């Protein structure tokens, strides 16, 4: 199923995401990425309201994974019944994402709100809340790179309106990727110790995105490799930042999956084995070997 849809934040155009000092100076003139009329709190409040309405307006069926890979799994965890698709039998899906909705269902059951209407609407509203944070960071990223004029139109994307409030793992992957790209570009603009903090945030968000959807590594390997070539202390960056953060997220993710599967399960390895080494994913469509290099990155 991995070939049917990818992160909404594609690699197309990512190579052009570069820090612009002129726009950075403009953005920090009246405080870090705030202005008199467009404060972060106001933007976030607007995005929350916008995405909440968005979640109610989008009532169509788009992809089976928005149910079978998240809500159905969460329902089974909390209420003890529900269908698990073959991916969960093969151990190629992580429980990291469904557990978020399982926690929501548990709270709803405790409060006596586990009625059909609330069970249908609450997950979308939770996703809309998460998506609104992604909208804020998309605004900040756009402003950082392109300036105010472009940033003010960051919400006007019809496909994001159509998909971002759906309970797909792609939705939260997109939010984490946008946030990670913001902090990654932010650290490129500093030459002080603030650079290290911003870079670590970006790496942590990237690791979370890869834990939820391993295919997110395609984006981050590309972005990271380009900037690694320009770093003066490459080994220090790899061994003091990349590896510790990556190992921490992998361990937490493996412990969660061990707990939920009932046995030690390495989802990322099973995912690679099925989609790459055994060609199981070919059933859902394939590209030529050079597709990402010749077309995907263009």
Automatic annotation (TrEMBL):
MF terms (GO), sorted A to Z: alpha-1,2-mannosyltransferase activity
Transmembrane segments: 175-195, 202-222, 242-261
EC number: 2.4.1.-
Record keywords: Endoplasmic reticulum, Glycosyltransferase, Membrane, Transferase, Transmembrane, Transmembrane helix
Membrane topology: Multi-pass membrane protein
Family: Belongs to the glycosyltransferase 22 family.
Taxonomy, superkingdom: Eukaryota
PANTHER family to which the protein is assigned, alphabetical: GLYCOSYLTRANSFERASE (PTHR22760), GPI MANNOSYLTRANSFERASE 3 (PTHR22760:SF4)
The protein's name in its UniProt record: Mannosyltransferase
Entry's localization field: Endoplasmic reticulum membrane
GO biological process: GPI anchor biosynthetic process
Organism: Vanilla planifolia (Vanilla)
Cellular-component GO terms for this entry: endoplasmic reticulum membrane
The keyword Transmembrane is assigned to this record: yes
